[in-house]
TrEMBL record, chains A, B:
Name listed for the protein in its UniProt record: Ependymin-like 2
Organism: Astyanax mexicanus
A GO molecular-function descriptor: calcium ion binding
Biological process (GO), any one: cell-matrix adhesion
GO cellular component: extracellular region; lysosome
Signal peptide: 1-19
Coiled-coil stretches noted in the UniProt entry, renumbered to this chain: none
Keywords: Signal
InterPro entries, sorted: Ependymin (IPR001299)
PANTHER family the record matches: EPENDYMIN-RELATED (PTHR10697:SF5), MAMMALIAN EPENDYMIN-RELATED PROTEIN 1 (PTHR10697)
Length: 215, 215
């Protein structure tokens, strides 16, 4: 009897400890929000509004890319499963269809990421004054890049992602105004004038993920 | 009667609009927390644990300053009203008293700051997944520096402060794990061995505020 009790207590202590340890998580499958990306050397910034569907593997982004004083607006609808994206130009009702070959990388903490710290942005002294987050670090062999990611403890919502490539160049991405769900799923339906879209091959052929799709 | 009704309606619309506009705010007078500062060029970082008392105008900081691979630990107790600070060395029970001449600048949004944006870190789609914050920008003529500050909408808790000086050097400060109140007010009482502290003048004499006190 005593052995059984001891075993039960030990097991619950162990389970309690395991439960406390943050685990890599995946962001909700449907997300809408904004993203700010600061490119190395600080000359280029990207500000985008996006809708993300990890179930059908499609992303819609309207991005404003600033390079020094030049600004460019791009509206793209990416279908990762079908391996092409549309570049949509409403001003002249034209559309360009570009094939690309890339795996869909959902917004998530990689399974082999190392938990760095749990901390509070702001304060938990009163409601609505703070946010409990976790930071994770790791290395991606394919791109030879180190990353540091901060996601919320509850809901696995991305906050910041910093990647540092081989050349020690930093790419800093900051997410905000995220909404779980899709306010208007029609953003994934291409406008009618895209049915006659011209097919244009990408020069570099590189669309590795969510971020590089816009570079 | 109709005029009175119209006036009442107009007044409440105006007051409603004014109430919605975020106003510069002051952080709580007692705070404890952590601060990370990234100095220009990225070679120097400062990580500190601090206790802040804006009523008595005193700050206690234990800071770890990393410059490339060198690390230095500093423990300081600053009395802004009395215009001196102690540098405390527990390892050999010694203490250095240094006079300084600087105004106490409380943690706050300057009155003439310009409201830039209100945004959510994370998501407000579910409780504990997001934080509503405001960003403010402005210019400090004394130090010829531009600043960009992010504080929580509720509670006026600092999140980040970015200052850019004349030379376009960026100082990025990030606050976290803040607690409103003082867990142990005794941190402001100098250890007994400080009564016989040696007085040493600062070479540069510059202690302008909360941050420069540590540079």
């Amino acid at each position: 009897m005593r052995t059984l009790l001891l075993l039960t207590v030990s097991l619950s202590v162990l389970l309690g400890a395991l439960a406390q340890q943050p685990h890599p998580c995946k962001a909700p499958p449907y997300l809408e929000g904004k993203l700010f990306v600061l490119f190395p050397e600080g000359h280029t910034t990207l500000f985008e509004q996006f809708a993300y569907d990890a179930v059908e593997e499609r992303i819609r982004v309207v991005a404003s890319i600033k390079h020094d004083s030049q600004e460019m607006i791009e509206d793209r609808l990416l279908f990762f499963r079908e391996r092409f994206y549309y570049e949509i130009h409403y001003h002249n009702k034209s559309c360009v269809k570009t094939p690309f070959d890339a795996q869909f990388n959902p917004i998530q903490i990689p399974h082999d990421a190392h938990h760095q710290a749990q901390f509070v942005l702001g304060s938990l002294s009163a409601p609505a004054e703070g946010l409990l987050v976790n930071s994770w670090v790791g290395y991606i062999p394919e791109t030879k890049a180190n990353y540091s990611m901060t996601f919320t403890e509850f809901g696995c919502i991305p906050i910041t992602i910093l990647t540092t490539d081989e050349k020690k160049d930093h790419f800093f991405s900051s997410f905000f105004d995220l909404v779980v769900g899709l306010e208007n799923p029609e953003v994934f339906i291409p406008p009618s004038f895209c049915t006659s879209a011209k097919v244009v091959e990408r020069k570099d052929g590189k669309v590795a993920d969510f971020f590089s799709a816009l570079r």
